[in-house]
């Protein structure tokens, strides 16, 4: 009886679902399963839009479900993901989850697109750290740039966020006005 693997293909936002990234990741994890000579059960595949920002991963629903699946299915020996940043974008949480899978259910997180990451030697551990570190700093940079861009827009008099309930965008960029229906209701009172 063959060993099994479960898979996780993840993007960070619904917008990224449109760019075919999940299909590419799916091909990579399926090829890795062939190389490992393991089968992937139909109910052992997780895929979708899940944020992996630092601080949000200890309670990630998909990872908890995968861990529980491994507890029930003892033939599972691998969690196959495409690359480290598709598994996690946080150094501490990545190693915490790798450790949980290894020690709680004897399952290895396996990186489909980079074979050098899949051993326990010092080089592989260092390279996984570097990949997670790069993903984490990339997230921090994006957050910082986004916040700075919003601050600049607000100082210029532009409101960059979605209109609040009862408001709508006006013809003037960055200005929100009361929606006509709401204005009528307010005038009746």
Verbal overview:
This protein has 189 residues and is an alpha/beta fold. The chain is built from six helices and six strands. The protein has helices at residues 21-36, 61-72, 84-87, 91-105, 122-155, 180-188, and strands spanning 4-11, 45-49, 76-81, 108-111, 167-169, 176-178. It has a four-stranded parallel sheet with strand order 2-1-3-4, with helices on both faces. It is elongated, with a radius of gyration of 22 Å.
The major pleated sheet works out as: 4 strands, parallel
**Average of pLDDT:** 83
Estimated structural class: alpha/beta
SSE string, helices as H and strands as E: EHEHEHHEHEEH
In angstroms, what separates the terminal alpha carbons?
73 Å
Please list the strands of the largest sheet in the order they lie side by side: 2-1-3-4
Poorly predicted residue ranges: none
Number of helices: 6
Strand fraction equals 15-25%
Number of strands: 6
Rounded to the nearest angstrom, the radius of gyration is 22 Å
Helix % is 40-55%
Shape: elongated
Assembly category: single chain
